[in-house]
Design brief:
The complex is a heterodimer of chains A (125) and B (362). Chain A is an alpha+beta fold and 125 residues long. Chain A has one domain: RNA polymerase II/Efflux pump adaptor protein, barrel-sandwich hybrid domain (OB fold (Dihydrolipoamide Acetyltransferase, E2P)), CATH 2.40.50.100. Chain A has 5 helices and 9 strands. In chain A, the strands form 2 sheets. In chain A, strands 1-2-3-9-8-5 form a 6-stranded antiparallel sheet. A 3-stranded antiparallel sheet of chain A has the order 4-6-7. Chain B has 3 domains: 137 residues, Gyrase A, domain 2, CATH 3.30.1360.120; 83 residues, Alpha-Beta Plaits; 76 residues, Aminomethyltransferase beta-barrel domains (Elongation Factor Tu (Ef-tu), domain 3), CATH 2.40.30.110. Chain B is built from 8 helices and 20 strands. In chain B, the strands form 4 sheets. Chain B has a 6-stranded mixed sheet with strand order 11-12-13-10-4-14, with helices on both faces. In chain B, strands 15-18-17-16-19-20 form a 6-stranded antiparallel β-barrel. Chain B has a 5-stranded antiparallel sheet with strand order 6-7-8-5-9, with helices on one face. Chain B starts with 5 loop residues before the first strand and ends in a 12-residue tail after the last strand. Classes of the chains: A alpha+beta (125), B alpha+beta (362).
Chain lengths: 125, 362
């Protein structure tokens, strides 16, 4: 299972990449494997403000719809139109082209409080 | 109250094959092995195999068995010759569907019924309470393992695994030399057969078909395949509150055969005209996958019903579903909308089915 060392994670299987005050968010390799074939991604509206734990996007497989939660609080500043057009990117490149949305971070300490790669690896065992 | 999950005799093999196990209708069954999409396409293009051990099997026998069944079920049992089968309904006194099932005539006094997993006890209790003297009803559900082999290559696979033996005619039933029961039916629209053998022999039988080339397929692909064909799922698309006429399945109801449970209600409904009908609905553009219970709106945004089933169709790439709609909205071409989490996706009522499978030979 691919769990990159330079990312942060939460227990609902989202990952966070922090660059300056912008956090890129997607779902983990483990999550995409559990969901299997992603056939639809519903992106959040730009400018929307979300709090930790808010359902922010939806990823759907043939069988079910799964909420993607905001791992930290912030304002949605970008959403990945590429996964809307080609949802399978979430499966094939979950940490790269398959990212889902970007947040302008409200409180960087929330990122620090997330799991590191070792912690997430332990979680998914 | 404690809930105990029921287990298929094939479970150890599902685990070995990487099946992802879930609770379905009280049974611990594989929803998929790797990818629902791959499994779906395997059945449409090649051949796949499903565990259907959860389904129930009843034997009805005795000199009056056929005549009694004709009073219990909606389709015409008397129309069957030995070795033939038919899709039929067990109805309540209101004409509503208790269960949809397949009935096979093995001999004039012996019938084999395949019923839905969740309805085994209810069907048996209903039938048993109405049993005629001299007719025997036996629940053999625990005795059998079942598997459905489906796809354009299913005949070829059968011949490879059972050389020298033939499949029955479409909808027919036959017993093989090894004692297994083979029915030329399925729930995918493709050619194929259902194979029932003693529970203890199930793993070996399933493995033989897999080794012969059948892709193991789970309940996820089973659902997308059946919905592309508009085959109803009891509990979703059929209910005790809806008649087979409302479900658009009047072809399988023999109103003129004489009396049967629910007939008077169906005759009245037919004479007065239907108020609602189960229709096929397809997205006109891309959109969030439609699913059961999502509201169906008219073109102006008024709620007119809800989806009884829905799925992103792997074969057509479109969102598809079925819904009971007021009769004014049931004509193919009628524009509707599906409400997905507050967003409205344009859709249209279409003719059933959504997908035309490859033609069946022999």
């Amino acid at each position: 299972m691919n769990v990159p060392d330079d990312l942060r994670y939460n227990s609902s299987h989202e990952w966070v990449r922090l660059e300056g005050d912008i956090a890129t968010i997607g779902i983990t390799d483990h999550a995409q494997e559990e969901l299997t074939d992603v056939v639809f991604v519903e992106l959040p509206a730009l400018g929307r403000t979300v709090d930790i734990g808010d359902p922010t996007a939806v990823v759907e497989s043939v069988k079910a719809a799964s909420d993607i939660y905001a791992p930290i609080s912030g304002e949605v500043v970008e959403a990945n139109a590429a996964v809307e057009a080609d949802p399978a990117l979430v499966n094939t490149d979950p940490y790269g082209q398959g990212w889902i949305f970007k947040l302008k971070v409200k409180d960087a300490a929330q990122v620090e409080a997330l799991l590191d790669a070792a912690g997430y690896r332990a979680l998914i065992g | 109250m404690s809930v105990t999950l029921l287990h298929s005799p094939l479970e150890p093999l599902h685990i070995e094959l990487g099946g992802r196990m879930v609770d379905f209708a009280g049974w611990y069954m594989p929803v998929m092995y790797g990818s629902i999409l791959d499994e779906h396409h395997a059945v449409r293009k090649e051949v796949g195999i499903f565990d259907i051990s959860h389904m129930g099997q009843f034997i009805v026998r005795g000199p009056g068995a056929g005549e009694w069944l004709d009073r219990m079920l909606a389709n015409e049992v008397a129309r069957l010759a030995d070795g033939e089968g038919q899709y039929t309904f067990l109805l309540n006194e209101r004409g509503g569907v208790i269960d949809d099932l397949i009935l096979y005539r093995e001999a004039a006094d012996t019938y084999f019924l395949v019923v839905n997993a969740s309805m085994i006890d209810a069907d048996f209790a209903w039938l048993h309470a109405r049993l005629d003297a001299g007719v025997e009803l036996i629940n053999e559900s625990d005795l059998w393992a079942g598997m459905a082999v489906q796809g354009p290559r299913s005949q070829e696979l059968f011949a490879a695994v059972h050389p020298g033996e033939g499949l029955p005619v479409r909808n027919g039933i036959a017993r093989l030399a090894n004692g297994a029961v083979v029915c030329r039916t399925g729930y995918t629209g493709e050619d194929g057969f259902e194979y029932f053998c003693l529970a203890a022999e199930g793993v070996a039988a399933f493995r033989a078909f897999v080794e012969g080339g059948a892709a193991p397929c789970g309940l996820g692909a089973r659902d997308s395949l059946r919905l592309e064909m508009c085959y109803p799922l009891n509990g979703n698309d059929l209910s005790p509150e809806r008649t087979p006429l409302e479900a658009g399945l009047g072809f399988f109801v023999a109103l003129d055969k004489g009396d049967f449970v629910g007939r008077d209600v169906l005759l009245k409904q037919k004479a007065e005209g239907l108020q609602r009908k189960l229709v096929a609905i397809e997205y006109t553009d891309k959109g969030a996958p439609p699913r059961a219970h999502y509201p169906v709106l008219d073109a102006g945004g008024q709620v007119i019903g809800e989806l009884s089933s829905g799925v992103p169709s792997p074969s057509t790439g479109k969102g598809i579903g079925m819904a009971y709609l007021p009769i004014d909205f049931t004509k193919p071409g009628t524009p509707v909308q599906i409400d997905v989490r507050g967003r409205h996706f344009p859709a249209v009522v279409v003719k059933k089915p959504f997908y035309k499978p490859s033609p069946v030979s022999a």
